[in-house]
Specification:
By secondary structure, the chain is of the alpha/beta class. It has helices at 19-33, 53-58, 79-91, 101-109; strands at 10-14, 40-44, 61-64, 96-98. The protein has a single domain, classed as 3-Layer(aba) Sandwich (Rossmann fold). The longest helix has 15 residues, at 19-33. The chain is globular and about 45 Å long.
Length: 135
């Protein structure tokens, strides 16, 4: 029987101005998910705003990554297009996960308020595990 993860396709949406950071993020996603490189498609909206609808539809799940130089509280050339994409992903009930900047952007796109509050800022790495409720 074929392992379900062997057919899983992830779309990694990146917001990286630096090619080295972009490659590092892709490598980390591949390593930490246990997927093969051909199972992870990626698009960098900082370099080329907008995501082809077919790319979104081909993905079983979407990850929005971090950002080294962008703030969620500011608008960038890709902001409105990516907000529309996040809402389409939600409307299709497609699994969506955000890391760092990505989870803040998802909150903004879905109506949440994101603020800069340096006194209560949290920085660090935590382990995330899957539970039966998340599957």
């Amino acid at each position: 029987m074929k392992n379900a993860t062997s057919t899983l396709k992830i779309l990694l949406i990146q917001v990286r101005a630096d090619n080295l950071a972009s490659k590092h993020e892709r490598d980390c996603v591949i390593e930490m998910t246990g997927l093969q490189p051909d199972q992870v498609d990626f698009v960098n909206v900082a370099m080329s705003p907008g995501i082809d609808a077919e790319r979104l539809e081909r993905a079983d799940a979407v990850i929005i990554g971090g950002s080294g130089s962008h703030s969620v509280v500011n608008d960038d050339p890709f902001t409105e297009l990516l907000i529309d994409d996040v809402r389409r992903i939600r409307d299709r009930r497609q699994p969506l996960f955000g890391t760092c900047w990505g989870h803040q952007f998802i909150a903004r796109a879905l109506g949440g308020e994101v603020v800069t509050d340096l006194e209560r800022a949290e920085v660090g790495v935590v382990t995330v595990t899957s539970t039966p409720a998340s599957v």
